[in-house]
Amino acid sequence: MGIASANKTAAQTGTIYAILFAISGVHLMNDTMQAVVSALFPVLEKSLNLSYGQMGWIVFTLSMTSSLMQPVVGYFSDKRPAPWMLPMGMGLSLIGMAAISVAPSFFLIILAVIFVGLGSAIFHPEGSRVVYFAAGGRRGLAQSIYQVGGNLGSSLAPLMTIFIFLPLGQPGAIWGTLLAATAILILLRVVPWYKEQLALHGKPVKRAAKTDINENARRDRKVIVYAMLVLILLVFARSWYYSGISTYFQFFIRNKYGLTDRAAQIPIFLFMAAGVMGTFFGGMLADRFGRKKVILFSIAGSSPFALMLPHLSLAWVYPIIFIMGFILFSGFSVTVVYAQELLPGKVGMASGLITGLAFGMGALGAVVIGKAADVWGLTQVLTYSSVLPLLGFLTLLLPADRREKA
Fold first, then answer.
1. Vertex 51, ends 50 and 54: CA angle to 5°?
2. Which CATH superfamily is domain 10-405 in?
3. pLDDT tens-digit series, residues 245-291
4. What keywords are assigned to this protein (predicted)?
5. pLDDT in tens, 365-400
6. How many Cα atoms occupy the beta-carbon half-sphere of 15 within 13 Å?
7. Domain boundaries in the chain?
């Protein structure tokens, strides 16, 4: 079924995969453009003489621009959804990509990534609302399809480093403008369908949908606030650890094992590629076994592998980082769905809050880890950060959902 023919709501026809795969494809392109920034670090480290702390500030600027704006965009779009914001966000990212390719200094790189961050902030809440309409009764699977696109885009960073930026240098970022242009063309096909759903069925806030969260928890404001605080702590633990691995582990293994810049990208790619698989299967498992169990498995379950990773021989790094990536990412989309079910009718704000926090916490983590690495050394800091997934056991404090109680 093509996008143009997907003219009924998922509630009537079931899950609308044409729309889900289209918006997931745009998510892939959006997050690929964000991945360009970290993929450039081995080049910018030398050409602009960046320190670990400066690289952390670049990640911080990109992520905080996105994270601070996502809940704001989500809040206002819950009140007045705006389909036109989808292509507009990609337009801002296009400007950012063009600017990154020619920026001659650290400060102009910062300015360029602000545009990329704003584009992402605008896209994510509206994209999640499109997923909500197209999901039917399979919200876990639908959110996983959507998040798989984003995680796949992020996983391309090491490959872009190897095949684009090490050979071409900073000007290779201009290829990101083609991603933005392609995303805009796809969104121009999705927007009419999205407008039709809004015209026929109104905002998701008006639809009384059953959720998997315990009904008493939904009615009890204190329980909801408590559960959201626990979710925020879980997002903090996962995002700080992910930021340390995705941003700095390449330099850690390069220095510890004497790898080239190209070879140092391989474990990062394995980590992120496994995360794509984990995101997809995590959504399906959550639909069957419950959100809470999968969130617990994803963060706490990755802790043994995180603790051993800094101490392994090179041969063991590859399988362990792959397994850890699969487990850690398996709860990413599930956390978003859990938050949406805690806050029924506030789809944009819930997804913007959790996804935005993931970016924001990761940004703060990148700065703190980078600054600490400049002072105490990268090996020591990454070793200490490996305890963060142990906070995943806080998941046990979350309210139960129906599947868990069953």
1. 80
2. MFS general substrate transporter like domains (1.20.1250.20)
3. 988 999 999 999 999 989 999 999 999 999 989 988 988 888 888 88
4. Membrane, Transmembrane, Transmembrane helix, Transport
5. 888 898 899 999 999 999 999 999 999 999 999 987
6. 15
7. 10-405
